[in-house]
Design brief:
Mean pLDDT: 96
Shape: globular
Strand order of the largest sheet: 6-7-8-9-10-11
CATH topology: TIM Barrel
Largest sheet: 6 strands, parallel
Order of helices and strands: EEEHHEHEEHEHEHEHEHEHH
CATH class: Alpha Beta
Radius of gyration: 18 Å
Low-confidence stretches: none
Strand content: 5-15%
């Protein structure tokens, strides 16, 4: 029986159910927790987050993977309260969203130091708690993979190979180099999600196929950041363009290599976020769009249940 780490303890894979694989309770840049305009809204933040997670449960959602890295708003005791209150499994991550959003303290740390940090958070606990990370988060800095990014990628690969958890990436930019770094450090590509393949500035169907052919998962996981929105962020994509991009990937035969999510914030930290965007866009807009396009329920179940379960389930450690 497979196992997955959540903030309330390790659970059986079968308990995951419908899973949003790349989300955020709240994400901000280092220092966002010191911004007094957010302190004054703690009660509103809590109530809004509870409402969104309860709505997620009403749609059949069971597991919420919070991909907020170290220093970006990850708050394990808060996550535990939310999980108990709503009945949603919350999977926390170790690692960093990207090198350019890592706290300065970590920027000169060695691969060995970072590996040990990640392994500790996966096997012992996060921030002095007994809650263990269920995945490692890594990412590409603005402008492309930096030297720090590459150190983090190498450490993440080593930690994932040693502990059996997967790696989830921010951005699919430089995807070939990302996978090369993983393999150099002993991590099989089928243990990685190369994320945000669906952002408007970075759509590349040939790249997506290359990732899938090598066994990796392709993250269509910024769903809901639609270019049609007022004040749409720069990473937005046209709603129909995203659907066609995704359907094209499925039609090529790579259903088992696809994961979907919204990369939404229940409550953005230190930035305005995108009004109305939440994890529930998946159920209220995207899945209905797929159904209208003729996608059957078996495919939807594969995307929301089986593929997330396959990647999140801890594997036996690899010793290299």
């Amino acid at each position: 029986m497979g196992k997955v780490n959540t903030v309330l303890g390790t659970i059986a894979t079968e308990e995951l159910g419908v899973t949003a694989i790349h989300e955020h309770i709240g994400f901000g840049l280092p220092g966002c927790d010191l911004d007094t305009q957010w302190w004054s809204k703690a009660e509103e933040m809590f109530e809004t987050t509870i409402q969104k997670l309860q709505r997620f449960r009403e749609h059949g959602g069971k597991t919420f993977v919070d991909c907020t890295g170290i220093g970006n708003g990850r708050d394990i005791p808060y996550f535990q309260v939310l999980s108990r209150k709503t009945g949603v499994n919350i999977v926390a991550v170790t690692g960093f969203v990207a090198g350019d959003s890592a706290l300065p303290y970590f920027r000169d740390k060695s691969i060995e130091y970072l590996t040990n940090l990640f392994v500790h958070e996966i096997t012992v606990g996060i921030d002095g708690t007994s809650a263990k990370a269920g995945a490692v988060k890594v990412g590409v800095s603005r402008g492309g993979l930096s030297e720090l990014d590459e150190r983090i990628y190498r450490a993440a690969a080593r930690a994932a190979a040693k502990t059996g958890v997967p790696v989830i990436t921010h951005l699919s930019t430089n995807a070939e180099r990302q996978m090369e770094l993983f393999e150099m450090e002993g991590l099989s590509i089928d243990r990685a999600i190369i994320g945000h393949a669906d952002i408007g500035p970075d759509v590349d169907e040939e790249r997506d196929v290359m990732i899938a052919k090598r066994g990796g998962y392709v993250g269509f996981d910024t769903i809901g950041y639609d270019a049609e929105l007022e004040n749409a962020p720069y990473w937005s994509c046209g709603r129909q363009e995203r659907i066609q991009h995704f359907l094209s990937f499925l039609e090529k035969g790579y259903l088992k290599n696809a994961v979907i999510s919204a990369d939404a914030n229940c409550w953005p930290l230190g930035w305005p976020g995108v009004e109305g965007h939440s994890v529930n866009y998946l159920f209220e807009e995207f899945i209905p769009d797929l159904r209208k396009a003729g996608v059957d329920e078996g495919i939807i179940e594969q995307l929301l249940v089986h593929n997330p379960a396959n990647i999140l389930t801890m594997r036996a450690p690899v010793f290299v």
